[in-house]
């Protein structure tokens, strides 16, 4: 038989010898020989017509051959497959179940307390409230404040329980909150409160911008106060106030203006990504600081702030250092650091004077905060000459102050329950305690960030954790670890003050209109407040750890925004943030690269 090749050079013909070899090797091949024996078209077509039937037959035999395996092996294989399938199904079931029933992450006490402490600011808002205020018993109030004064004075925060707006403590509160955001924005975000605290700050700074002509280049007055404290003869909800409220301006108020400048400058860094608003805040801060110092800086010879019934400033030089430091951070203008590192200004401010209130940071005394802020510049930017000497003095002073907070120091007494007496047994101690806790924790974090293991306090070396431990003991006392087992933060734990000195919280929200005299019955009521002012830190106990839960005794039971600002700052600082720590750079974003001048040559003695 002649051999015929296909298109690829192969042969169509298979000999019998090849077929026999295939059978002997155990392989059967089925071919239609007639399809290849004739070249005629009909024969070729016939072969292709028979092909499907042959294919089916081949598949049938192949199928029969494929299942011709050992039954024992088959059974074992099926058992293994079944076991594996069951195991996979079980794992999938458990994973799905764990996914659907996973409990929410457990929040620590500091996170819960932080969230509630921030809510206090929502309860203190004045003006037309936003839809997301989330305090059910509060409504719009005092919408006509300052009508006829500039563009009106609606908004801002009531200072405490008496629906009065004081610019001085409000400014300090906004500065402290901004500082805490600049240091610990990552911790705020982890706690889910970053946007909330920024909203709180903006609500405050929006109001402060209304208290002076913030669009001008120079000003001659700012608003000191809106409203009048009249707790003795008038007790009504802010929503019920329908009478004109006095606006008290001042034309010479260096401490207030410098504190307001600090607040706007610090907030301008918080809102640096909102360029238009940040620029507006910087401009306002600049004209306020010039108004405070009259452009004279350390040579200021003007008067002091006017007297106030509740927020009298004991001096203004410390606000010049504090405000100037924040102005430098916000603008990078070297004239500010030249001012605040001037030995003359430090001398005026008595920055290095001991005294009973040395180290007591609060709305009236900014020495400790200013010194820590200036030390930050030295620790992270290393300015050198000509600033190093004064910055070093600031650093040594704040280190001494932080050391004085520790139990081994004799600068401050402690109650039997362990509360440090920073204001020497006077009323309302907690506001100063929270500020000290914030400064101590921040100081420890600065040491951590500079890889410094601790600090030498006198003859003893303390690891950095000692400063954080001090802060924890004080905040834990406030949250309930005290002799009374009472939380001084309303709404935290099951035992907290029930008779908070707060007009809005003490009157049922269904009472829409009443006179001053009619409301006095709620002040004198023996029943607990009908509204819980969540997160409010009250004034606190006395020097014997005693506490009077009495609505009429504001020294014990009145909360303030300045006090709560310190609490918020301390709580966020103490959150577990070993992986985050402080933000070293954001605060310095406006400071240009520093070119250090050469020191003057040494004096050569005459021959």
| Strand ordering within the main sheet | 1-2-3
Give the rounded overall mean pLDDT: 85
Assigned CATH class: Mainly Alpha
Per DSSP, the total helix count is 20
Alpha-beta content class? mainly alpha
CATH T-level fold name: Glycosyltransferase
Tell me the number of strands.
Answer: 5
Radius of gyration: 39 Å
Relative strand content: under 5%
Which residues sit in consecutive blocks of at least 5 with pLDDT less than 50? 1-59, 61-67, 96-105
The largest sheet is: 3 strands, antiparallel
* Topology pattern, helix = H, strand = E: HHHHHEHHEEHHHHHHHHEEHHHHH
Measured between the Cα atoms of the first and last residue, the distance is: 131 Å
Catalytic activity: Endohydrolysis of (1->4)-beta-D-glucosidic linkages in cellulose, lichenin and cereal beta-D-glucans
Transmembrane segments: 73-95
Keywords: Carbohydrate metabolism, Cellulose degradation, Glycosidase, Hydrolase, Membrane, Polysaccharide degradation, Transmembrane, Transmembrane helix
Family: Belongs to the glycosyl hydrolase 9 (cellulase E) family.
Describe the 3D structure:
- With 607 residues, the protein is mostly helical.
- The protein has 20 helices and five strands.
- It has a single domain, classed as Glycosyltransferase, CATH 1.50.10.
- The protein has helices at 16-24, 34-37, 41-66, 71-100, 109-123, 167-190, 194-210, 254-270, 275-293, 317-331, 334-340, 343-348, 367-381, 388-404, 430-449, 465-479, 503-506, 516-523, 554-557, 561-574; strands at residues 165-166, 222-226, 247-250, 454-457, 460-463.
- The chain has a three-stranded antiparallel beta sheet.
- Helix 5 packs antiparallel against helix 20 and helix 6 (167-190) packs parallel to helix 8 (254-270).
- The N and C termini lie far apart (131 Å).
- Residues 1-59, 61-67 and 96-105 have low confidence and may be disordered.
């Amino acid at each position: 038989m002649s051999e015929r090749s296909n298109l690829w050079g192969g042969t169509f013909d298979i000999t019998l010898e090849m077929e026999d070899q295939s059978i002997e090797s155990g392989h059967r091949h089925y071919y239609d020989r007639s399809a290849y024996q004739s070249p005629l078209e009909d024969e070729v077509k016939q072969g292709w017509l028979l092909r499907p039937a042959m294919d089916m037959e081949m598949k049938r035999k192949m199928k029969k051959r494929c299942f011709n395996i050992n039954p024992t092996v088959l059974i074992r294989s099926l058992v293994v497959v079944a076991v594996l399938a069951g195991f996979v199904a079980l794992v999938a079931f458990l994973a799905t179940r764990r996914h659907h029933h996973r409990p929410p992450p457990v929040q620590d006490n500091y996170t819960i307390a932080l969230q509630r402490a921030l809510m206090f600011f929502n309860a203190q808002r004045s003006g037309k409230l936003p839809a997301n205020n989330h305090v059910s018993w509060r409504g719009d109030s005092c919408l006509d404040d300052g009508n006829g004064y500039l563009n009106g004075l609606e908004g801002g925060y009531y200072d405490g329980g008496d629906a009065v707006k004081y610019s001085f403590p409000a400014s300090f509160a906004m500065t402290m909150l901004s500082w805490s955001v600049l240091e610990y924005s990552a911790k705020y975000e982890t706690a889910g409160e970053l946007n909330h605290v920024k909203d709180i700050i903006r609500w405050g700074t929006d109001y402060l911008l209304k208290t002076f002509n913030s669009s001008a280049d120079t000003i001659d007055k700012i608003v000191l106060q809106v409203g009048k404290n009249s707790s003795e003869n008038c007790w009504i909800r802010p929503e019920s106030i329908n009478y004109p409220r006095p606006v008290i301006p001042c034309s010479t108020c260096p401490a207030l203006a410098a504190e307001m400048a600090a607040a706007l400058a610090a907030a301008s860094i918080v809102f640096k990504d909102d360029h238009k608003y940040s620029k507006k805040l910087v401009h306002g801060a600049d004209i306020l600081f010039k108004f405070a110092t009259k452009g004279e800086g350390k040579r200021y010879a003007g008067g002091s702030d006017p007297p106030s019934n509740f927020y009298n400033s004991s001096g203004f030089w410390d606000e010049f250092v504090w405000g100037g430091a924040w102005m430098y951070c916000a603008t990078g203008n070297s004239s500010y650091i030249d001012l605040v590192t001037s030995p003359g200004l430090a001398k005026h401010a008595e920055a290095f004077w001991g005294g009973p209130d040395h180290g007591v940071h609060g709305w009236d005394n900014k020495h400790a905060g200013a010194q820590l802020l200036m030390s930050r510049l030295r620790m992270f930017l290393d300015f050198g000459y000509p600033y190093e000497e004064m910055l070093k003095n600031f650093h040594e002073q704040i280190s001494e102050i932080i050391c004085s907070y520790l139990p081994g120091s004799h600068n401050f007494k402690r109650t039997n329950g362990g509360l440090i007496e920073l204001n020497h047994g006077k009323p309302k101690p907690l506001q100063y305690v929270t500020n000290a806790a914030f400064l101590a924790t921040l100081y420890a974090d600065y040491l951590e960030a500079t890889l410094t293991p601790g600090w030498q306090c006198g003859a003893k070396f303390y690891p950095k954790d000692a400063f954080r431990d001090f802060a924890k003991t004080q905040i834990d006392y406030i949250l309930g670890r005290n002799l009374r087992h009472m939380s001084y933060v309303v709404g935290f734990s099951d035992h907290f003050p029930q008779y908070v000195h707060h007009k809005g919280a003490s009157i049922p929200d269904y009472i829409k209109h009443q006179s001053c005299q009619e409301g006095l019955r709620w002040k004198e009521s023996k029943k607990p407040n009908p509204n819980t002012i969540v997160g409010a830190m009250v004034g606190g106990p006395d020097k014997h750890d005693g506490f009077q839960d009495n609505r009429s005794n504001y020294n014990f039971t009145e909360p303030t925004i300045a006090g709560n600002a310190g609490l918020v700052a301390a709580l966020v600082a103490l959150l577990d943030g070993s992986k985050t720590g402080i933000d070293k750079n954001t605060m310095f974003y406006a400071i240009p690269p520093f070119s250090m001048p050469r020191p003057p040559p040494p004096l050569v003695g005459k021959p």
